[in-house]
Design brief:
The complex is a heterodimer of chains A (468) and B (314). Chain A is of the alpha/beta class and 468 residues long. Chain A has 3 domains: 148 residues, Ribosomal Protein S5, domain 2 (2-Layer Sandwich), CATH 3.30.230; 217 residues, P-loop containing nucleotide triphosphate hydrolases (Rossmann fold, 3-Layer(aba) Sandwich), CATH 3.40.50.300; 65 residues, Helicase, Ruva Protein, domain 3. Helix content of chain A is 37%, strand content 15%. In chain A, a hairpin with a 4-residue loop joins strand 11 and strand 12. In chain A, helix 2 crosses helix 3 and helix 17 crosses helix 19. Chain B is α/β, with parallel strands linked by helices and 314 residues long. Chain B folds into 2 domains: 181 residues, 3-Layer(aba) Sandwich (Rossmann fold); 53 residues, Winged helix-like DNA-binding domain superfamily/Winged helix DNA-binding domain (Arc Repressor Mutant, subunit A). Chain B is built from 13 helices and 12 strands. In chain B, helix 4 packs across helix 10. Chain B is elongated, with a radius of gyration of 22 Å. Classes of the chains: A alpha/beta (468), B alpha/beta (314).
């Protein structure tokens, strides 16, 4: 993206061309005030600013600083040569200060690609820009940028203010008492990156268990972390420090979320929750309460690990390789399978409730666990295993799975064949059981998948109650 | 209008071509047996208002209606316990060579049919609408399986819509075909109780499966027990009353000690996987394979997270 400015004879005015949207057009007023506030001269001329390539739609306030510097260079207040090798990004305040904008990481990576070495960016965004391997020039005020470009000293590096909130600690598995089967399933999900569906009456700890999955996931690798940080930066949800996201993201949108909120969209288009959960966990609490089109739209990313959004204004592909965790009741009133309550749902209500989830969607869950109500005995029981201990096993199992997926021995294959005969198990279901069995074997440190592992994997298949 | 009924009937009889009507039924895979025909089941003819005839759909001959039949009926919105009991009763009674009759409704009825089909047995569904309809529509697949080996019957000709008052009328046929009626789960005012009442009036055996006394789903069936219905604790109870011997029991598969321990706990009372973990002191990863082994061997059933030992056949 290049920003050009031209001063011509004529009535003093400022025109921005190059398909700039409203926020971009408003840059006129911000840039004029910013330049005047920085005690620089606003040129008395007809100023034309061109955002090239002119055919591409531009939006947002990230061009403010580049427009201001282009005008200053055109009017001779900044040496145009000094700008060489610099990328520029940032929003101007009316008093000339710089405000951080979203997507600085993506801009910095773009700058790196075309061979620019430095980037002038808002001070707060400089750690984010540094991730791309470009040298950030932290700028707090327009006058600071001008003095730097005029050969003055480099602005001091950005020091984050004190009192930053500590990194949010994921809740610990040790808090879960009883529910051994569900915690086992969460461990399997973490080790094998399986999608997990938790069923049961309200108050049995489905959400509690699901929220503990991120805490036992291994930290992200460097390239994964960069991917995640880039998406969060573009969506403008990167934290105030703008540093690298090293832990798998965890997103839990409310069930009233719209299609655009989940898969992405809007004029941008901007990434949705599914993309923000890339390389992490997407938790959909009260799964059947989501709009059905939203749920069905998740099938593409579950298959391809990416979402392509086509809009009149253009097409975008966002990565979305997330692990899906969903929770749901067994019936609309929630009383089913709960000895303390009675289900008052009619057969028709129940059928409608189940029809909301297509077989194609249910087929995407490798692990399905029904969590019945925990009895008082278990609540008084000992705390579960700590997340750190579980995470060590998960990391070891992942290393084993990444090296080589264990093969099934003859007995295991025979059991799987028998199960396909005996149970309603589709071709996809068979493959799913095979994958889960491999994860179980890897967690156990076994060399090959034994009948024992297949038998356990079979116990997590989706129940016939949902097969309506 | 003022024409007497007898005259109207005479006129209809002259115009009606029975052979042509039979042909048009046959084209649609349907048959009709009149009350006076010899194939008409005598048990059904003996009730106080037998239907004028039965329309039949399915591959089985009308003679299956002469077999010893047991009706299994109950609530549409049943509990998972009721569904499991209905299914295993259907399976074991069919395996013992009995004809399982029910109404193809959701819940208990459907499970009873499915159980009979699992055992490779023959089952008969009695409809409360025209013979050509699969009602409820969600049971169209089940209907297809029933007619593959058994029969769907109705007193209503093709095209008759289901109506609320037709279902109690249908229940008298269910009761009429069967030597015994088993009520699995019924609320206080359930259609299944109508079937039981009709069966009592005709002098057939009435059985009820005991349910939890705190559950309104079992209020009707427990009420029957209070009034003196037979108690069902195993399929054998029904077979004994009808003088049918047990089927040859399949030999129990060999189980390792861990699986055996899981089965022993479940034989006492149904339990969740977590309760088994607590009771046996085994990790969840060891309990899960045992549960799958038992389920594949047909010794336990799972519904809504609760594992239950299958009723002993004896």
């Amino acid at each position: 993206m290049e920003v050009e400015a031209h001063l011509a004879e004529g009535k003093p005015a400022l025109t921005i061309v190059g398909l700039a949207d409203r926020a971009c057009q408003e840059a006129k007023e911000r840039v004029r005030s910013g330049i005047v506030s920085a005690e620089l001269k606003w040129p008395v001329a007809r100023v034309v600013v061109n955002l090239a390539p002119a055919g591409l739609r531009k939006e947002g306030s990230a061009f403010d600083l580049s427009i201001a510097l282009a005008i200053l260079a055109a009017s001779g207040q900044v040496d145009p040569a000094s700008l060489r090798g610099h990328a520029v990004v940032g929003e101007l305040a009316l008093d000339g200060r710089l405000r951080p904008v979203g997507g600085v990481l993506a801009v910095a990576e773009g700058a790196k690609r075309i061979g620019l070495e430095r980037i002038l960016c808002p001070a707060e965004s400089s750690p984010e820009a540094a991730l791309a391997g470009v040298e950030p020039i932290p700028v707090r005020h327009l006058s600071e940028a001008v003095s730097y470009l005029s050969g003055g000293s480099r602005p001091p590096p950005y020091v984050p203010p004190n009192g930053l909130r500590p990194r949010a600690r994921a809740p610990d598995l040790a808090d879960v008492r009883g529910q051994e089967r569900a915690t086992r399933a969460v461990e399997l999900a973490a080790a094998g990156r399986h999608n997990l569906l938790l069923l049961g009456p309200p108050g049995t700890g489905k959400t509690m268990v699901a929220r503990r999955l991120p805490g036992i996931l291994p930290p992200l690798g460097r390239s994964q972390a960069l991917e995640v940080t880039r998406i969060h930066s573009v969506a403008g949800v990167l934290g105030p420090t703008g540093s690298l996201i090293e832990l798998p993201p965890f997103r839990a949108p409310h069930h009233s979320a719209s299609m655009a909120a989940i898969v992405g969209g809007g004029l941008g288009p901007r990434p949705g929750e599914a993309s923000l959960a890339h390389n992490g966990v997407l938790l959909l609490d009260e799964f059947p309460e989501f709009q059905r089109p939203v749920l069905e739209a998740l099938r593409q990313p579950l298959e391809d690990g990416a979402i392509s959004i086509a809009r009149a204004s253009g097409q975008a592909v966002f990565p979305a390789r997330f692990q899906l965790v969903a929770t749901m009741n067994l019936c609309p009133c929630g009383g089913r399978a709960d000895p303390a309550a009675e289900c008052s749902c009619s057969a028709q209500q129940l059928a409608r409730f189940r029809a909301k989830l297509s077989h194609a969607l249910l087929d995407r869950f490798d692990l399905v666990v029904t969590m019945p109500r925990s009895r008082a005995r278990e609540l008084a029981g000992a705390p579960g295993e700590a997340s750190t201990a579980v995470r060590e096993r998960v990391v070891a199992a992942r290393a084993r799975l990444d090296a080589d997926i264990p093969a099934r021995d003859a007995e295991a294959s025979a059991l799987l064949d028998r199960a396909v005969d005996r149970l309603p198990l589709s071709g996809r279901g068979r493959a799913r059981v095979g994958r889960v069995a491999a994860t179980i074997a890897a967690l156990a440190g076994a060399d090959c998948v034994a009948a024992e592992h297949v038998a356990e994997a079979l116990s997590y298949r989706s129940p016939k109650e949902l097969a309506s | 209008m003022d024409e007497p009924r007898s005259r109207r009937y005479e006129r209809f009889r002259r115009a009606f071509d029975a052979a042509a009507y039979g042909g048009s039924l046959a084209q649609r895979g349907l048959r009709f047996i009149g009350r006076s025909q010899s194939e008409f089941p005598p048990l059904l003819r003996a009730i106080h208002d037998p239907p004028p005839g039965l329309f039949l759909r399915g591959t089985a001959g009308a003679d299956v209606l002469l077999w010893d039949a047991v009706a299994i009926v109950g609530a549409r919105s049943c509990s998972s316990y009721g569904a499991q009991v209905a299914r295993s009763l259907g399976r074991e009674l069919a395996a013992a060579g009995l004809l399982v009759v029910s109404g193809m409704a959701r819940g208990i009825d459907g499970e009873a049919h499915r159980g009979a089909l699992e055992a490779g047995g023959i089952t008969v569904a009695v409809l409360g609408c025209g013979i050509d309809r699969d009602y409820p529509a969600s049971h169209a697949t089940l209907a297809g399986e029933i007619v593959r080996g058994g029969l769907i019957v109705s007193e209503y000709p093709p095209g008759v819509e289901p109506a609320p008052w037709r279902f109690p009328a249908r229940n008298r046929i269910i009761a009429g075909l069967a030597r015994a009626v088993v009520v699995v789960e019924a609320r206080e005012r359930s259609g299944a109780l109508i079937t039981a009442d009709l069966a009592l009036e005709e002098g057939r055996e009435v059985f009820a499966v005991p349910g939890e006394i705190t559950s309104s789903l079992s209020a009707g069936s427990n009420g029957l027990l209070r009034l003196g219905a037979h108690v069902v604790t195993a399929a054998q109870d029904v077979m004994d009353a009808l003088g049918v011997g047990p089927p040859t029991a399949p030999s129990e598969p060999e189980l390792d000690s861990r699986t055996r321990r899981v089965l022993d706990v479940l034989a006492d009372a149904p339990a969740t996987a977590d309760e088994l973990v607590g009771a046996l002191g085994l990790p969840a990863a060891d309990v899960a394979p045992a549960l799958t082994t038992l389920e594949l061997a047909g010794l336990i059933m799972e519904a809504e997270g609760l594992y239950r030992a299958v009723m002993p056949a004896g």
